[in-house]
């Protein structure tokens, strides 16, 4: 963009100043009507009410002498008055309301209808009192000249009918209805009668309906006005449910057949929709001999009739397929399927290269109706799969599915994206047939389509990966090379838009990826992206979603050195980042780590970096840490973590003594009370913590199994150079009692408390680790040691918080060159780091010798790991 010329920036010429003055005069003219609309002193005097009046007296005064707006306010406040003083309200206010409603305008009438309904729903008075006081007012205004007011009172009456006793209904509503439904009455009166009759059938027995209601129903079905016939036809469904199957066949079905041949298209449409909704009531003979010919005739004539009939037909197609399933002949089955396919492409054969501004309005309206038809066809696609049998999907419906996924209109693609999961479930082992369509919808240019698809993305990918067979362990997504690029492109497209909720949802759903693609693919294609979002995105829910998904990725990562690189990056770039915003996100990440990982994992890697933020210069960070401290304390076990508990207590004391921010100090005090009330978990199982301890033990066992599985992979790679049979490898695996599968029990959303029973190590490995990624042939060579080897090179560094009156305490911190990242040819440079990875290990509570800092001869970490393995 080029900067504007200097003359355009600011012009102080005479002409320009006159122009500014004219603009100011126009603004003055605009404001004048506003000033004129203010109330005069006389008007204000008339609107003023004595403040000493009670609510009842004020309401009576306003209804008697006030203006319309004041009367409307009183009627809107009627439910409150009924709750406060029902007796006085009924005695003094309700008569005034009746008087006012006779001459009231539309707004007051609508307000009264809503208030009467609210009083009924709140049960402020008994049903008998309500019927005596309010029912006649409702019935009186049913035929108001304004259609909106009439409908509002009708809705109130229909709700009242639900609770009124039979005798009241018979005398107050049904008996007067006989005269209201006559041809001599107005059309509006007969329309109201139709809807009331449909509601009354649920309140009387079949005999009373046959004797008192059905004659009126037949009369209204034969009314001279098509509007009345159509309205009565739509009530036949309620009437059929009230009179039972036999009367429906003998009375309702003949009326529906006659109405389906009516000269009015709206009447025929109402008859068709009612027949579809009543299919379950009719037996096979009625369906095959009566209803099927009607449906067939309706379908044949639909293209020649109004497009609105096509819209209704396409919407009810799934119900028709289900209701008429089994009575089609092979020829009828084929013709019905071809009819559905034709509807799926309706309107696509026309030329689309024209300019919309040059299209006549009637053509545009027709195209909108065609879009609705194709959208309804997409909605009914799962039902059509059942109709043709999933085994015949590729031959009968795949081309139609392809067209719907590539439809030029967004509503059609949006609807088929919603149905994609249902389609995948129905295809089961044939789900591979729609792999390409999944990629197409993931790459769709409309974020609405993507948002609809990702609602069930984890389930869809799971079906794709197993081929629809839950017992199959082999991942089948290797045959879909475009999946990962499509997923990454979808996330980038959502990130570039303003629809952050779609972006957040997508990141949450990506937590399922460890179950469908390999650990290395996640590490190289998704992990760095999660870091970038956490560091650069401006939307807090998106950052938190990325943080939690990254923690899930870390949980399932199968390479120890990659896990250490991620942990180190979290601590350095977030926990020790220059931006306080990043440090806040580190605390969010710590919360997710506590949720997803075992207690020992958090204490080992994140405990000290988290509590170090008590020294943070930003008050918001310290406050957020205070809220997190109870969860941090819950990860400790006594006596193994006694030294960490001392560190925590020391940090809390320092906050209490040195905190200057009043809000943080108040939060610290509340946190201290909560920490004092907490009961510490012991190394041994306790009854009150049994379920939580068992779940934590299970998480810790699975984390240790990851290390053993990595060792197995390395052994297999080392044996690739010399002959090694599968039997030999399986024997080694059995000897180590380690299965080649990964656990799949980490929830994508925040889990609730779960319970389980303790089992042996062998049973846990067989039952919990139910999925395995195939061993990666491109795995890294054993250039770096594992955790045991790394510990051999570690050195101790004293952690000495300076608080007066407290002794210095030190814990082991791990510094190891083997945790540095690989060179640029084997890992992203963004993961490189040369700083130590802080760690604490249970069983190392004794303070280290300050003189040994920097020495390489300290106790190796392998012993600490063995002590953790030996703990129950």
UniProtKB/TrEMBL annotation:
A single BP term in Gene Ontology: blastocyst hatching
Domain of life: Eukaryota
Compartments reported by the entry: Cytoplasm
Record field: compositional bias (Polar residues): 752-761, 823-849
HEAT repeats: 213-250, 252-290
Transmembrane domains' residue ranges: none
Principal subcellular localization: cytoplasm
Signal peptide residues on this chain, from the entry's feature table: none
Compositional bias per record (Basic and acidic residues), positions renumbered to this chain: 713-737
UniProt keyword annotations, A-Z: Coiled coil, Cytoplasm, Phosphoprotein, Repeat
GO molecular function, one term: protein serine/threonine phosphatase inhibitor activity
Function: Putative regulatory subunit of serine/threonine-protein phosphatase 4.
Family matches, as PANTHER family: PROTEIN PHOSPHATASE 4 REGULATORY SUBUNIT 4 PPP4R4, SERINE_THREONINE-PROTEIN PHOSPHATASE 4 REGULATORY SUBUNIT 4
Subunit-structure text: Serine/threonine-protein phosphatase 4 (PP4) occurs in different assemblies of the catalytic and one or more regulatory subunits. Component of the PP4 complex PPP4C-PPP4R4.
Identification of the protein by name: Serine/threonine-protein phosphatase 4 regulatory subunit 4
Organism per entry: Balaenoptera musculus
């Amino acid at each position: 963009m080029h900067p504007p010329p200097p003359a355009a920036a600011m012009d102080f010429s005479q002409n320009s100043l006159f122009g500014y003055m004219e603009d100011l005069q126009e603004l003055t003219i605009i404001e004048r009507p506003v000033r004129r609309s203010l109330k005069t002193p006389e008007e204000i005097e008339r609107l003023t009410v004595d403040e000493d009046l009670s609510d009842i007296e004020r309401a009576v005064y306003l209804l008697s002498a006030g203006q319309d707006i004041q009367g409307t306010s009183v009627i809107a406040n009627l439910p409150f008055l009924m709750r406060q003083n029902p007796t006085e309200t009924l005695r003094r206010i309700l008569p005034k309301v009746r008087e006012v409603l006779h001459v009231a305008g539309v707004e007051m009438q609508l307000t009264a209808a809503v208030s009467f309904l609210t009083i009924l729903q709140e049960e402020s008075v008994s049903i008998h009192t309500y019927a005596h006081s309010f029912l006649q007012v409702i019935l009186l205004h049913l035929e108001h000249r304004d259609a909106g007011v009439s409908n509002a009172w009708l809705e109130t009456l229909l709700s009242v009918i639900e609770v009124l006793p039979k005798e009241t209904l018979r005398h107050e509503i049904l008996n007067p209805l006989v005269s209201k439904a006559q041809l001599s009455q107005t059309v509006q009166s007969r329309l109201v009668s139709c809807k009331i009759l449909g509601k009354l059938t649920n309140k009387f027995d079949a005999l009373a309906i046959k004797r008192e209601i059905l004659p009126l129903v037949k009369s209204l079905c034969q009314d001279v006005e098509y509007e009345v016939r159509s309205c009565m036809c739509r009530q036949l469904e309620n009437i059929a449910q009230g009179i039972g199957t036999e009367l429906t066949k003998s009375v309702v079905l003949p009326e529906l057949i006659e109405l389906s041949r009516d000269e009015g298209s709206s009447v025929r449409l109402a008859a068709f929709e009612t027949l579809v909704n009543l299919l379950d009531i009719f037996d096979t003979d009625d369906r095959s001999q009566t209803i099927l010919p009607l449906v067939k005739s309706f379908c044949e004539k639909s293209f020649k009739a109004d497009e609105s009939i096509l819209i209704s037909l396409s919407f009810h197609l799934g119900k028709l397929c289900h209701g008429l399933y089994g009575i089609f002949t092979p020829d009828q089955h084929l013709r019905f399927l071809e009819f559905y396919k034709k509807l799926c492409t309706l309107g696509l054969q026309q030329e689309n290269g024209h300019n919309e501004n040059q299209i006549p309005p009637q053509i545009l309206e027709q195209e909108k109706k065609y879009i609705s038809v194709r959208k309804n066809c997409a909605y009914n696609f799962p039902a059509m799969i059942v109709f043709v049998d999933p085994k015949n999907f590729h031959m009968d419906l795949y081309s139609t599915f392809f067209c719907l996924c590539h439809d030029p209109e967004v509503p059609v693609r949006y609807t088929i994206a919603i149905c994609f999961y249902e389609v995948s479930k129905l295809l089961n082992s044939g789900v591979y047939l729609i792999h390409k369509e999944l990629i197409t919808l993931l790459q769709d240019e409309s974020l609405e389509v993507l948002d609809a698809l990702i609602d069930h993305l984890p389930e869809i990918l799971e079906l794709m990966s197993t081929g629809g067979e839950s017992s199959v362990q082999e991942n089948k997504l290797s045959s879909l090379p475009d999946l990962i690029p499509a997923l990454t492109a979808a996330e980038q497209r959502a990130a570039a838009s303003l629809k952050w909720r779609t972006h957040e949802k997508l990141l949450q759903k990506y937590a399922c990826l460890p179950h469908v693609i390999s650990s290395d693919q996640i590490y190289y294609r998704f992990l760095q992206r999660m870091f970038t979002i956490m560091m650069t995105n401006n939307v807090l829910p998106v950052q938190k979603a990325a943080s939690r998904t990254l923690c899930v990725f870390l949980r399932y990562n199968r390479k120890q050195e990659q896990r250490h690189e991620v942990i180190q990056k979290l601590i350095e770039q977030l926990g020790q980042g220059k931006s306080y915003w990043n440090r806040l996100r580190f605390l969010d990440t710590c919360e997710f780590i506590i949720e997803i990982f075992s207690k020992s994992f958090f204490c080992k890697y994140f405990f000290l970096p988290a509590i170090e933020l008590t020294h943070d210069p930003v008050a918001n960070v310290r406050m957020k840490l205070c809220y997190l401290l109870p969860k941090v304390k819950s990860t400790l076990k006594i006596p193994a973590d006694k030294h960490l508990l001392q560190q925590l207590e020391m940090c809390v004391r320092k906050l209490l003594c040195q905190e200057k921010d009043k809000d943080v100090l108040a939060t610290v005090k509340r946190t201290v009370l909560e920490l004092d009330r907490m009961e510490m978990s012991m190394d041994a199982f306790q009854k009150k913590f049994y379920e939580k301890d068992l779940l934590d033990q299970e998480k810790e066992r699975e984390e240790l199994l990851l290390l053993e599985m990595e060792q197995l992979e390395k052994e297999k790679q080392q044996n690739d150079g010399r002959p090694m049979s599968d039997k030999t490898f399986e024997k080694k695996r059995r000897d180590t009692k380690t299965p080649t599968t990964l656990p799949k029990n980490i929830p994508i959303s925040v889990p609730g408390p779960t319970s389980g029973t303790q089992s042996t190590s062998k049973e846990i490995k067989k039952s919990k680790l139910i999925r395995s990624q195939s061993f990666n042939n491109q795995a890294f060579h054993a250039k770096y040691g594992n955790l045991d080897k790394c510990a051999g090179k570690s050195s101790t560094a004293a952690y000495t918080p300076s608080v007066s009156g407290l002794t210095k305490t030190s814990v082991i911190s791990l510094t190891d060159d083997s945790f540095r990242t690989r060179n640029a040819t084997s890992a992203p440079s963004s993961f490189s780091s040369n700083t130590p990875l802080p760690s604490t290990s249970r069983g190392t509570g004794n303070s280290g010798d300050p003189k040994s800092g920097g020495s390489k001869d300290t106790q190796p970490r392998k012993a600490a790991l063995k002590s953790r393995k030996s703990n129950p």
